[in-house]
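Supplementary Methods, section 5.1.

A reviewer requested that the exact input to the structure prediction be made available. We therefore reproduce it here, unchanged from the version used in the analyses.
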Amino acid sequence: MSLRLQPVSIFSALFGALGISTGLYTLVSPGHKTAELFGIVIPPSIDWNSEAGARQKAFMRIHGVRNAVNGAGLVILSLLGARRTVGIMLGLGSLVCVADGWILKDYRTRAEGKAAQVAEKQSVGHMLTAIPVLVLAWFNLK
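The structure derived from this sequence is encoded token-by-token as follows.
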């Protein structure tokens, strides 16, 4: 199999590389900053050695693995020229963006102060990210 480097494949692979990098960051450095980048503020008083802290880290690491593995799949399929498959992956990925944004909107209604502000900002960011992902999906499918 040879690499098929068309512009749409390169942009799709870049989205995959972004997934890999954010996934690895979340996997390696779960904590306050990582959660905030996603849109959730964890109380600074949390004891990371407690069961509650370990649970938070586990959820973040699960999120990181999901992003890294899906990103790797997207890079590989993009570079191999499997455009229809990439288009389907990206189309479904746009639904993840919207769902994440919706979940953060719901979280915002119960959050207070900085947590509400971060959730609001990131919920909009997640939903807006769905637009370029969906456009790229369309270019892969046409």
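The mean pLDDT is 93. These observations are discussed further in the main text.
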